[in-house]
Design brief:
Elements: H1 2-22, E1 55-65, E2 70-80, E3 87-93, H2 104-108, E4 113-115, E5 118-120, E6 131-138, E7 141-142, E8 144-148, E9 151-160, E10 165-175, E11 179-180, E12 184-187, E13 190-193, E14 199-200, E15 202-204, E16 208-210, E17 225-234, E18 238-241, E19 244-245, H3 248-251, H4 254-263, E20 270-273, H5 281-284, E21 291-301, E22 306-309, E23 313-319, E24 322-328, H6 338-352, E25 360-365, E26 371-373, E27 376-379, H7 385-397, H8 399-404, H9 417-431, H10 436-440, H11 444-452, H12 470-490, H13 492-505, H14 513-524, H15 529-537, E28 544-549, E29 556-563, E30 571-577, E31 582-587, E32 597-603, E33 608-613, E34 628-629
Parallel strand pairs: 1-17, 24-25, 25-27
Antiparallel strand pairs: 1-2, 2-10, 3-9, 3-14, 4-5, 6-7, 6-10, 8-9, 11-12, 12-13, 13-22, 15-16, 17-21, 18-22, 19-21, 20-23, 23-24, 26-27, 28-29, 29-32, 30-31, 30-33, 33-34
Amino acid sequence: MIRTLARSALLLIVTSGGLAGQGWEVSPFRPLELPGPNIFRAGSGRPGAGYWQQAVDYRIEAVLDPAQNELRARADVSYHNRSPDPLPYLWLHLEQNMCAPGSLTSQLDQPPLVFLGSVFDFSCKGFAGGLAMDSVLVGGVAARTTIFGTTMRLDLAEPLAPGASLLVRMVWRFKVPPFGGGRMGHDGPLYEFGQWYPRLAVYDDLRGWNHEPYIGAGEFYLEYGRFDVAITVPASHIVAATGTLQNAAQVLTVSQRDRLARAATSADPVAIITRGEAGIPARTRPSTSGSLTWRFSADSVRDFAFAASPDFQWDASAWEGVMIHTLFRPGATLWAEANRMTRQALAYYSQQWLRYPWPQFTSIEGPVEGMEYPMITFDPGGPTREDVGWVLAHELGHQWVPMVVGSNERLYPWMDEGFNTFIDLANAARYFSGTAYGDSIEAHPLHLYADHAVPGEQPLILRPVEVTDLFWAGYQKPALMLSLLRDEVLGRERFDAAFRQYLHAWAFRHPSPADFFRLMRDASGMDLDWYWREWVTTTTRLDQAVESIGTEVDGVTEVRLASLGTMVMPAELRLIFADGTSEVVRLPVEMWNLGPQFTYRARGRGAVRSAELDARHALPDVDRANNRYPR
C-alpha cells in the first residue's frame, strides 16, 4: 500500500509539472466526474441488466363545459411498482395549481422569456384558478393527501411492495384559464388541454421521487403507460387527442369516415373537413344538440393532451401507415401547407433517426405558442410560411425527444429542446432548400454565438428555472454543440451511428446526462469527456491562433499553432505555399494532448507563405484576428 501511494504521488508530481511546463494548469482531457455505473445503468451508457422503471396506466372520463368554462373529470390510475423499494407514499403533479392564488408562479411574477420574435409568458396572466381535488381514494378508502402548490403527496396505509400495484381513484375540476402558463388555454370556443390531470411523478433509480414544482420554464418528466380516455363535449365540437379514436362511428359523419379511409393511403392531404364546412355543425357533426363522448386509447405514452373546437378545418394524409392530421381554423391561411410540412418532417425524422412508433400524429393550430405532447402538438398560426414550417417540425420533433426518449425536462432541457433543435435544423434546410432561409438555417446557432456567449453566460447543466437565457442554453447552444460534434469532431457517419444507438437504447426509458455521455463515447470510439465539459458543464471559449511560420529547412516548414482560450477543438489549417498552391489540413483535437502549443510540419510543398485556421468560419472562435499569419 505504501509503495502504491508513493508511486501515485510521484506520478502526480511528474504529470503536474509536465502540464505546467507545457502551459496546461489542468488538462482539458481529464476524465469527467460522473456517477459510477451500476446494475441499473451500464458503463456503456445503456440500460443495465437490472434497469427498471415504474409504469402508470390511466382510465379517465372528462367533461368539458364551455358554458361554465370548466373541466370536470375522474380517473382510475393503476400504479405498478417495478422498483426494488417499498413506497410509503406516492407523489403527483397538480400543475393547474400554477394558476392558483398564492402559487409560486404568482409570487415570483417572473418576466416572460423572449425567444427571438416569440414571447413565452409562463404565468397565468392574473387568472385566479387552480385545481380542486374533490376526492382521492386508494382501495376504495379516502386517502390522506397533502398538497404543496403544484405537487401532492399521497400517503399509503401500507408501503407499496416491490412488484405490487394499486389503484388510485380521483375526482377533480378546474376553471380553464384563457392562458395557462403557455401550455394550455382557450381562444373563444377553441380549447387546448395539456397538463390537465393529476399526473404521477417519476420514481427512478437516480433520485427517488422527482417532484420539482411546476413554475413554467421546466416542462415535465413522466412515466410511460396506457391511457384510455373518454372526453365529453358539446355535440358541435370536434376533438383531437393523444391516441387513436375508438368510436368514430358515433362522433364522425359517414363522409368524414370515408374521407379518413382515403387519407389512410394518400401521400397528399385529404380534406376531412373542408374550409367551406368548418364552423358549420350541421355539415360536420352527426348531431347538433346535446353532447357527444369521444374515446381515445394510447399505449406506451407518458402523457395525454387534447383539443376541442366547433370551428376546425381538418386535413389528413398518411406515411407508411401513420395517419397525419392537421386541424386549424379557416383564418390560419398559412396552414394550407401544414399537412405536407408535417408529413415530410415525420418521414425525415423516421428515416434519419428512429421510426415514429405510434399510429397517428396531430398538429393543432391555436393560442398556445408551441407545445408538445405524445401524438399531438399545439402550434400558432404563424406570421410567415417559414415560421409555420419551423414550429410544426420542431414540436413534432419532440415526439423523438422526450416523448420516446424520456429525459428529464425539469432538470435538463438541453437533452430534449437542444437535441430536438439539432434534428430540426437539417429538416428545415431540406424542406426549404433553395431559399435564403433553407440554405442558411443550419448555421443559425453559430451566428447567434457572439450575442449569447457573453459574460454571464450560464452552463447548460443548470435547471431551466435558473437560466436567464433559456433560448440559448436550452435550444440553440446544445444544437450548435451537436452540430460541431457531428461535422468537426466525429464526422457525420460516426456521429449519426452513435446518436441513433442512443435513441434506440433509451426509447421509452429515462436516460441521464451521464448515460448520454457514456453511450456516445462507447458507440463512437472516441473519449469525449473534454467536449461535454466544455459545452455542458462550463462556458469555455475557443481561441485558436497561428503564432508563426518558420523558415523552410530540408523541405520542412514549421507552422506554430496555439490554443489560447479555455476550449480545445480540432483545427482546420489552410496553407498557401510560395508557388501559389494551397492545401487544407484537418488536425484532430489530440494535437493539444501535450499542451496549448502545437507545431505542424508542412513537408514537400516548398515554403509556406501564409497560414489560416478555420477559414470556413465553422467554429465559434472568439478572436479571429489571430487566426491568420502573417496578420
